[in-house]
Amino acid sequence: MTHTVHILLVDDDPAENLIMRGLMRKISSAEIHLHYCQTIDAALDFITSGTPVSMVLMDNRLQQCDFRETVPALRQQGYIGPIGVISSSLADPYFQKFEEYGADFRIDKGELDPTAIEFILREYVTRA
Amino acid sequence: MATDLKNDQRYYCDSDLEKALNRVDFFRIFHTMTLRYGFDHFGILQLGNEGDACTLTNRLALHDLPSGLADAYDKRHRFGDSAVFKSLHTSSIPSVWKAGDPLPGHGGNLLGQLGFDMLMCVPVAGINGARYAVLFLGDGEDMDRQAHFALCYDAVCAFDYFYRLVLSNKAGLGLTPRETEILRWISHGKTASEIALIVSVSEHTVNSHTATILKKLDVVNRTQMVAKAIREQIIQ
To answer: Does the global pTM surpass 0.95?
Structure first.
């Protein structure tokens, strides 16, 4: 039986939504519903709307802020599911403190392939 | 964490390893290493005792095998009977296995059963002597000696960090401030989801911290955890 997984992608670049949808189509171990928000405000509204969210993939930088502000904002909204921070570069030293800001994991956009998605789903969603 | 371990006889100083914090970070490191050397998948296997009943699923400490592959294998085969598993208990020399090669001695053909053409086994050990092996699987035809040596070295280094940060039994080590905070909330009777809301992390993170606290205090459940923490005056 395949699980139904609702993933919320928060990224200010709509092209990333298209890329992520292409990636998710290659996942066979779960039925993935990918939801997309372009801003943190839209994401906060989505979380409070009651739509189930199994996991959030949060782009590091959204307009003027980064995950150090956006992830705590999601937590303050009461979201206790897994949050992964995605970025095109994990080199900034503040990424070492991602757990302190309420994120569960970090991953480079270049590393996100179907195998990585399947691993993350096993670790944080389907096994939970 | 390893700055005190550096010395001039090491060839490896990978910043990703220095920065790795959790299982996803190590997945990223091993997955990237796997692809860099032309393999498709990796698995870190806990060896244990040869005589113990074992399944592939239960022995895999971290892997990127396709979902369901290990389960499907276990339904049809006995991992403990495979020639690879037996070989890992008779020698700690790294080895390369190819689908067409004759198998040494008696044992199941793990490669054929999993559906790959090539397997590289790198036996490794934790600092306490616990034995593991890093397996790399793919459909390549062969690898040269230099690549073989380089992959062995990379795998040993990455496993060393993985073992110390994730796998090792941390009994007797002190709790971090976040772990102490979670322990305090547990002692107040809060559930994992309630603690997640209070401390602004995911429920998964709370459960992960709880598992670490159990290891560090060397206890088996939350009741014993709180009792020991009070007895040792970690919490009031």
So the answer is: no
**Whole-angstrom distance, CA of residue B82 vs CA of residue B84:** 5
Q: Is position B58 within any domain?
A: yes
* B21: contact with A, CB 8 A cutoff: yes
Choose among B64, B193, B197: nearest Cβ to A115: B64
- Flag whether pLDDT at A115 surpasses 60: yes
DSSP assignment of B220-235, as one string? SSHHHHHHHHHHTTS-
pLDDT tens string B201-231? 999 999 999 999 999 999 999 999 999 999 9
Of B41, B66, B202, the CB nearest to A81: B202
According to DSSP, residue B135 is labeled E
Q: Output the CATH code of domain A3-126.
A: 3.40.50.2300
The parent domain of residue B226 ranges over 177-231
Which residues lie across from A86 on neighbouring strands?
A59, A107
Helix B192-199, helix B203-217: angle, nearest 10: 110
In this predicted structure, what is the pLDDT of residue B172?
73
Q: Looking at the structure, do residues B45 and B74 belong to the same domain, yes or no?
A: yes
Q: Cβ B27–A128 below 8 Å, yes or no? A: no
Q: What is the average pLDDT value for chain B, to the nearest integer?
A: 89
Beta strands in chain B (DSSP E): 41-46, 60-63, 95-98, 118-125, 131-138
- Return the domain boundaries, chain A: 3-126
> What pLDDT score does B12 carry?
59
What distance in Å separates the CA atoms of residue B190 and residue A7, rounded to the nearest whole number?
A: 28
Other C-beta atoms within 10 Å of A20: how many?
A: 21
